[in-house]
Structure formats: structure tokens, C-alpha cells
Amino acid sequence: MKWIEFKGKKLAYESEGKGTPVVLLHGFCEDSSMWDEFRADLLEEAFRVIRIDLPGFGQSEVVAGVSIEDMAMGVHEVLHALDAGPVVLIGHSMGGYVGLAFARLYPGMLSGLGLFHSHPYADDEEKKANRQRSIDFIGRQGHILFVKQLIPTLFAPGYPRSNAFLLEKLIYRASKLDSTGIVEAQKAMMARADEAETLRSLQVPVLFIIGKEDNAIPADKNMSQVHLPQLASIHILEKAGHMGMFEARKATQRFVRKFVGFCKEKQSV
Fold it and tell me: Is 220 a member of any domain?
């Protein structure tokens, strides 16, 4: 992977293909490698696929005190270095939070925004307390046990048992992360702004991919957000949890491919 310097640290990225630029942002305890198989479909469609390791994940270094806005600024720096834009930005979970902050800070850089198992709402007090408990747990037990417990819960019931190799791979990758980066990301998510107004004011199409069996996002938050944008494409995965890029890869590839094509057509009008 290539990298730029951001806040004195390495921020890693990869850019492949030519055509409409599509940015893929990973979620919490993940890195850009989660898109390895998913991106192939986009490259076949002659899109330019840009994947970024957010600070503290993958090959990107930890940035002390990083915020979700900082992460969005890092994404902007990568796109500036690549002279890419406007882009269709697809963010999974925490990557969606970064995408929303990016949309607020750099609306002119977007031709479309995809929330892949994500939402615009700030943490409520219960969620903040849960994140703090996770931080405390990592401090006592380390992050390896934490990710071993976390990752299986992101999938629909039954999926981990029949896809043990994938789960082992994701847990292995997450175990190689710096625990400091995981803690900094938790703190950043705890402190992030509510972006509901950002969705309301967006002038570009918004893609929602929602897992009906997603235990990471309450159903009321999933469904209330879809009414916020002026123009939305909504897809509900009946048998998926929080990881539709694995649980329903072909379907979600199709959703993203069609959405990018629609954004391209709308931009050219």
C-alpha cells in the first residue's frame, strides 16, 4: 500500500482501476483488506476503487486523540493526493460515521454517499457506557480477547458456525491491530457529532444497506434514518447482520454497483 503523512503519522491507502472513483471505508476493528473480494466487482465495472486504512488500523499508524472528523480530513488528504473527486464514498459502520463527517466538511467532493450498516446518530448514554466498558476491558484483558468476543456478534445467528474460516481470518487480522488504535477509535465514536442534519441537507444520492438481523444498530435507528435524505436507495438484507459484504456479497455488490452507476448518471445531467 502507498501512504501519505497525516498529523505526523502514516495514513495508508490503495487506488486501483480507472473511471468513476469509489472510496471504500472499513469499520471498527477492521482494515481495508475487508474489501479484498468485494472490490473485484467494482473494478470489473471500470470504476476506480480507493481503499483507505483509517488511523490506527491496517497499515495506518495510530493518531493520538483522533476524532471522526480527523479521520474524514485524512480521507480528504488522500483524495487530494490522488487528485480524485468528486467520489462515491461507501462507509461500513464506523466508516459510515467518517463518511458523514466527510459529507459535512466537503460536500462538493461527493457524488454519492453509501451507509453500509451505519447511521448518522450520535451515541446515547447507554452506548457511550458500553464503549467505556469495552475500553476498560481492553485495559484489563487486552484487545485480542475483546475482538474474539466482538467479531462473531457482528454476524447473523448461525453464520459464524458455517463460516468458521472467515471468522478466524477476521479475528486474526483484528488481533494484529494496535490496542491503542482500537481504544482511540472507541473514544472517537463516543465523541462524534450527530449527523442527522447532514443527511437531510445532502444534495447527492444516499445508499442505505441494512441488515435485518443487525444487532449492532437498533432497528429504530436503521429505519428512521432512511427518511432523512432527499434521494435515497434503500436495501434491507433479510438474513444478514452487520457484515453484509460477507453475508450477502453478491447482492451488496450489485447494490453498490448500481448505486455508483446512478450517481454517475445524475452527475452528468
Answer: yes
